[in-house]
From TrEMBL:
Biased composition (Low complexity): 1-19
Superkingdom to which the source organism belongs: Eukaryota
Database matches in Pfam families: AMP-binding, AMP-binding_C_3
Protein name (database record): Long chain acyl-CoA synthetase
SUPFAM superfamilies the UniProt entry points to: Acetyl-CoA synthetase-like
Domain AMP-dependent synthetase/ligase: 87-523
PANTHER family with a match to the protein in the record: ACYL-ACTIVATING ENZYME 16, CHLOROPLASTIC-RELATED
InterPro entries: AMP-binding_CS (IPR020845), AMP-dep_synth/lig_dom (IPR000873), ANL_N_sf (IPR042099), Chloroplast_AMP-bd_Enzymes (IPR052987)
Residue segments, region Disordered: 1-21
Length: 725
């Protein structure tokens, strides 16, 4: 079903020049002759543009009939409020996107939006989010974005701190939570009431009905998304936008304290669009181009996902929206060429494979294990042969020759592994993925190895909200595992001594500092915080520690300076790499957070995996299934399925299992080895309920809130060390 920008079926024949079959979706596309060359040229032209929304004019002219957006999560509104047919999805071409964004901009101006006014946008992924967000920029405004499931107090804080003049919210339910009786819940600069409130998915109600049901005064205009498109009309002349103007305010995840609003300009975003790349070779098929498919799964309000969407869409791809619940089936449906993920999502895929393997016969498990070991041996030989390793010197002739021999000897078994193991894993992610980009946090080495053996090319990027976000990234032709690649063109990255601030020699560890076009202009209404991270020379202090790989020049991020645990013997422990290793090696543990500042040894809070406890014989298979059911399919993002009492009772039962603590400690001790005894976990606190967004122990981007976890379990942590004294 082809849809117009309003979500209704488009009447009249569509006349695309060509149709390209993309898995089970049909993409309307113009002939690619000459188009890819012009789009590549756009990369250069776009770098000189003044605002991000200018991309839609260009793309509508070059590939207007190409399907830009497919949103199966949000089917179209039907006339008379009827339920959409099963399998319905919203589709928009590049021409329709340009028209819709222009209409939205005109409507916003009509609602009172003025140049450089800010509008808060609180919603999850959808085509309507993208149209509203780009419409605000097109109208000359800027937006402050956050997810719809964030705490109401945080959303109100963002609205006020950003000095917003209006808000775009996902649903009437969220609007009701935000606005108190009489519409006083949202206050902008000097306590001003909103000029307007827009609801993206109003559930069949119009703006007037929403206004009356919530008793919002008439001085505040309440409208729906569809009403804006209907009334917006044609934007006669967009306000003149300069590159230095605010485009968006992106608020930090808030692992500690109140979130800070990073002010990103159009220049920041256009740098990311024009300079990022998956392969810096001219014309490489590893870069997204017309006809490719990208599946969006990460939160649209997160700057990593957001920049990825801008980057891929400007190359003429078709972007399909997905969510955690439908992701597995959407991979088969869309058969994507590109995925942008966080490590947690890759870990979920890996764990799914491990669970399937554990259900097979002992013989099948042994065969898969043997083929995996051979694949690992060959993979490491290939890295040495190509020189994509972390070392002080490049591999010499004899070592490379030995690696080549090893690769040749293991080739037959590698082909067998492809047929029996790795090919099936690639089919599980759609069968034709060119590139998976991982960012948001460090990628554990066991996941790097697994996906490389499977033939899934994973590129790692590094950056922060304050840097729009990409500072450095690996590319297809220079994909050195364990690194985050080279700095994006136009960037200056230096490693500085933590005490003196002086640049250190290549290979030495220090603070990572970045200067470049992607660095934010500062924090909203917070000059003190801005001055604390951006020095007089324009270098932004990332708060991360790192070094450059001597033989490849790639950046290696070693940890967070402020997360370092200093034991009482003076030894420093970077918790993140060790936690990543534990998550990968310890089958009984799903999540872990280390602690031990100023103590004699490390402790760990671990969240247990009931299914693997059952497989290990610690609890019965029946109990394992029951406990797993209490967690539910997506506990991290939607919360456990069980009630608090059910979870508490289950934890009591699980912790009483004979031999559990010994089994967990044995797995933990195997991770650090004997050469670094201070990295051994000396004692453990075991939990059944995981760290989730609903219990406030992880952020919406699935990062552990270390200070919150430490405070939540402070009594148990104190008791743990008191018992050892």
């Amino acid at each position: 079903m082809h849809l117009n920008p309003h979500g209704f079926q488009q009447h009249g024949p569509q006349q695309p020049q060509q149709q390209v079959e993309e898995g089970t979706i049909t993409i309307h596309s113009p002939s690619p002759t000459g188009l890819r060359h012009r789009l590549r040229n756009y990369i250069t032209v776009g770098a000189s543009w003044n605002s991000l929304p200018e991309m839609w004019d260009f793309l509508a002219g070059e590939c207007g009939d190409l399907t830009a957006i497919v949103d199966p999560v949000h089917p179209p509104d039907m006339p008379d409020g009827k339920r959409p047919p099963k399998g319905s999805e919203t589709r928009l071409t590049y021409s329709e996107m340009r028209t819709s964004i222009g209409s939205m901009a005109a409507a916003l101006i009509g609602l009172g939006l003025e140049k450089q006014d800010c509008v808060s946008v609180f919603s999850e992924n959808s085509y309507r989010w993208l149209i509203a967000e780009q419409g605000i920029m097109k109208a000359g405004g800027c937006n402050a974005v956050r997810g719809a499931t964030a705490p109401v107090a945080e959303l109100r804080y963002i609205y006020g701190d950003s000095e917003s003049v209006g808000a775009v919210v996902e649903t009437p339910k969220l609007l009701k939570l935000l606005v108190e009786e009489g519409g006083k819940g949202l206050e902008g600069a000097d306590g001003a009431e909103p000029r307007f409130l827009m609801v993206l998915f109003p559930g069949g109600k119009n703006g007037k009905e929403l206004q009356e049901s919530l008793n919002i005064p008439e001085s505040i205009k309440v409208v729906t998304f569809s009403e804006c498109l209907d009334k917006g009309g044609v934007l006669d002349a967009a306000p003149v936008v300069e590159r230095s103007m605010k485009a968006t305010l992106v608020y930090t995840s808030g692992t500690t304290g109140k979130p800070k609003g990073a002010v990103l300009t159009h220049a920041n975003l256009l740098h990311q669009v024009s300079q990022n790349s998956f392969d810096r070779s001219e014309g490489s098929p590893m870069n997204p181009w017309v006809g490719d498919v990208f599946v969006s799964i990460l939160p649209c309000w997160h700057i990593f996902e957001r920049t990825a969407e801008y980057f891929t869409l400007t190359r003429g791809v078709t972007m399909g929206y997905s969510n955690v619940r439908n992701f597995k089936s959407d991979l088969k449906k869309f058969k994507p060429h590109f995925l942008i993920v966080v490590p947690r999502l890759l870990e979920t895929i890996w764990k799914g494979v491990q669970t399937q393997l554990e259900a097979k016969s002992k013989g099948a498990q042994k065969a898969a294990g043997a083929l995996t070991r051979v694949s690992s041996l060959r993979m490491k030989a290939a890295r040495r042969f190509s020189g994509t390793v972390i070392r002080d010197s490049k591999p010499k002739g004899p070592e490379k020759a030995l690696s080549a021999v090893l690769m040749g000897v293991t080739l037959p078994l590698k082909l067998a592994a492809e047929k029996l193991v790795w090919g099936k894993i690639r089919d599980g992610v759609g069968g034709r993925v060119k590139v998976v980009v991982s960012g948001g946090s460090s990628l554990p080495s066991f996941l790097e190895d697994f996906f490389e053996m499977a033939g899934v090319r994973v590129l790692v990027g590094y950056g922060l909200t304050e840097t729009s976000p990409v500072i450095a990234n690996r590319v297809a032709t220079e994909n050195t595992k364990g690194t985050t690649g080279k700095p994006v063109p136009g960037s200056e990255v230096k490693i500085a001594d933590q005490e003196t601030g002086q640049q250190v020699a290549v290979g030495q560890t220090g603070k990572i500092l970045i200067r470049g076009p992607q660095v934010m202009s500062g924090y909203q209404n917070n000059p003190e915080a801005t001055a604390a991270v951006i020095d007089k020379d324009g270098y932004f202090d990332t708060g991360d520690l790192g070094r450059f790989n001597p033989i490849t020049g790639d950046l290696i991020v070693t940890g967070r300076a402020k997360d370092t645990i200093v034991l009482s013997n003076g030894e420093n422990v970077e918790p993140q790499p060790l936690e990543d290793a534990i998550s990968g090696a310890c089958s009984l543990i799903d999540q872990v957070m280390l602690f031990g500042q100023d103590e004699r040894f490390l402790g760990a809070i671990v969240c247990l995996n009931p299914l693997n406890m059952g497989a290990a014989g610690i609890i019965s298979q029946e109990d394992a299934s029951r406990y797993s059911g209490l967690l539910g399919p997506t506990p991290l993002t939607t919360g456990p399925a069980g009630t608090p009492k059910e979870l508490a009772d289950a934890e009591k039962e699980i912790l009483g299992a004979p031999g559990l603590e010994r089994a967990v400690m044995d797995q933990l001790k195997a991770v650090a080895g004997e050469e670094r005894p201070w990295e051994q976990v000396g004692s453990v606190i075991m939990k059944f309920e995981p760290f989730t967004t609903s219990n406030g122990l992880i952020t919406q981007t699935l990062k552990t809130k270390r200070n919150v976890v430490a405070e939540r379990f402070s009594k148990e942590i104190d008791a743990l060390y008191a018992a050892k004294r």
